[in-house]
Specification:
By secondary structure, the chain is α+β, with helices and mostly antiparallel strands. About 20% of the residues lie in helices and about 25% in strands. It has eight helices and 18 strands. The strands form five sheets. It has a five-stranded antiparallel beta sheet. It has a four-stranded mixed beta sheet with strand order 1-4-3-2, with no helix packed on it.
């Protein structure tokens, strides 16, 4: 979490601590947090556009969208795909900002002991990909060791913490293994709940050619109904969530298991995509082929932004129902399932915005210093950080990329503290 000071009219974003910041006039770049403010000026009205830049040192946008600091702008055309038009117009708006507020100070690590001070310095250097030998030596003290004196994943405070990893495929593998371990350690019965699948409609596409290919995937003039054969259904159930838009074919759950919501069920109940919870109650039913399925699921939210009281349920316990979505695996199907996943692992993108007193990270497959900084900066302290396996030192010692360095130098040129 980075600090922010309010300057004149722009309000501070919700849930941000207030401390040192930098106001940058004539900023080249805006961010998602911005709004035009109307100010009086001698009887006239002028529009001042404000922006709040959190950090270019964190992760770029997921998918194929280019980052704001990249040199690629694109050319707007009415014949372009809607997503390409939005990306181009967004980059144009980015250049219209007159003032930005740069968030510079990390506010999560507030420890005063010597180790935490060194950890804070290491994170500041990691933001810019300039870790020193002292920083590397400090981080290596948190690598999981087999010796009794070193930190270990078997420690009680790390045992059930969700591991931050690089890719959804690694997340699914860790979840599958630790789900069985959790049920065995707690001595509870593990239940398997299957999704209800049928042939679905082709998902929307930006191009006519792609829409035609999707149509050919889903339409079969010989097929009389939308039922899926039992042989194909068994194959579809085994497809991991990373290949089915996080819509699990088989959910393995037990009472007390930590889960991660993957859909905005109800924002007014804090049931949003990425919210953490624990299973309280499962209401089971049967699919058409006789397999058990979830009719509804009751979960207790973990550290919600505010207390939630649903009539007839305990505090912070909310019900979740099945949702139906079109999933494009090799074929397009309509899958009906409760949109959750076991929460024994999450990706670097999913961990953004969280503060974790106990933070377990798997660094082997991370791409650059931005991903490593994002995940390390979730920690509240050095003692609460655990690293699984070794990591590539060059990724946090090689500095900025050319485009990121150019944008940072431009902003810092106009900085006044």
């Amino acid at each position: 979490m980075h600090s922010l000071i309010k300057t004149q009219t722009p309000p501070a974003p919700r849930d941000r601590a207030v401390s040192r910041s930098t106001e940058h006039p004539l900023g080249q770049r805006p961010s998602a947090f911005a709004r035009p403010a109307q100010t009086g000026d001698g009887g006239r009205t002028r529009t001042v556009t404000w922006g709040c830049v959190e950090s270019f040192c964190q992760l770029p946008p997921p998918g194929r969208a280019s980052s704001l600091y990249s040199s690629f702008v694109g050319k707007w055309s009415s014949t372009s795909a809607p997503s390409a038009q939005k990306n181009t117009l967004g980059k144009v708006l980015w250049h219209q900002f007159t003032t930005v507020v740069i968030l510079r100070e990390n506010m999560r690590q507030r420890g005063l002991c010597h180790e935490d001070v060194l950890f804070h310095i290491a994170l500041e250097n990691m933001r810019y990909g300039r870790c020193t030998a002292t920083d590397i030596a400090l981080l290596r003290t948190r690598i999981a060791m087999d010796c009794p004196a070193g930190p270990s994943l078997s420690d009680p405070w790390f045992r059930q913490i969700s591991i931050i990893t690089a890719c959804n495929a690694y997340r699914d593998t860790i979840n599958a293994r630790r789900t069985c371990e959790f049920a065995a350690n707690c001595g509870v019965l593990l239940h398997s709940f299957f999704s209800y699948d049928c042939w679905g409609k082709a998902v929307n596409s930006d191009s006519a050619r792609q829409a035609q290919r999707l149509y050919e995937k889903t339409m079969d003039p010989v097929r009389a109904d939308d039922s899926i054969s039992s042989k194909l259904q068994e194959i579809l159930w085994q497809v991991p969530p990373c290949m089915s838009d996080h819509h699990a074919g088989i959910l393995m759950l037990c009472i007390g298991m930590p889960v991660l919501l993957k859909f905005n069920e109800a924002t007014e109940l804090c049931a949003t995509n990425g919210a953490e919870a624990k299973v309280v109650k499962m209401v089971a039913g049967k699919t058409l082929c006789g397999r058990p399925c979830l009719e509804s699921l009751h979960v207790r939210l973990t550290s919600p932004p505010r207390n939630v009281q649903v009539p007839g349920l305990p505090m912070n316990v909310i019900p979740l129902g099945r949702s139906k979505q079109t999933v494009d695996t090799v074929v397009a199907i309509a899958r009906e399932q409760v949109m959750i996943l076991p929460n024994f692992a999450m990706t670097d993108y999913a961990c953004q915005g969280r503060t974790r007193p106990d933070n377990v990270v798997h660094l082997k497959f991370w791409k650059n210093h931005q991903a490593m900084y994002t995940c390390f900066s979730r920690s509240s302290s050095l003692s609460g950080t655990l690293i699984l396996g070794d990591f590539d030192m060059a990724k946090i010692q090689s500095g900025f990329t050319w485009h990121l360095k150019a944008s940072a130098m431009y902003l810092l040129r106009f900085t006044r503290s």
